[in-house]
Amino acid sequence: MITVTFKTNGNLICGFTVSGHSDYAQEGSDIVCAAVSSAVIMSANTITEVQHINADVTESDGFVNLNLSKSDAEKSRDILGGLRLHLTALSEQYSKDIKVKITEV
Fold first, then answer.
1. C or N terminus of the chain, fewer CB within 10 Å?
2. What's the average pLDDT block by block, 10 residues per block, for the chain (105 residues)?
3. Are the C-beta atoms of residues 80 and 73 closer than 8 Å to each other?
4. pTM: predicted TM-score of the whole model, two decimal places
């Protein structure tokens, strides 16, 4: 299962952690994993490469962690809000494969 944890400070998303594998299908054919991976990488790249925000990003196989300062989280509010909506919708459609959590930090 893929677990997504959005880290919040009040109503502000200040980061996220994505870990695990969906096991929906074989590697290379797993549409759930592809959808989550694509959305997460696009969001992280938009924050770091388009907005030029120096986010703390860690990536490895089946794991992505991104943390932002409060001021940078404000600048990335729409991107992170869109990612949360997208992954929440996927978790509703593929509830056995994705779990989305919100954690106050």
1. C
2. 97 97 91 97 98 96 96 97 98 97 96
3. yes
4. 0.94
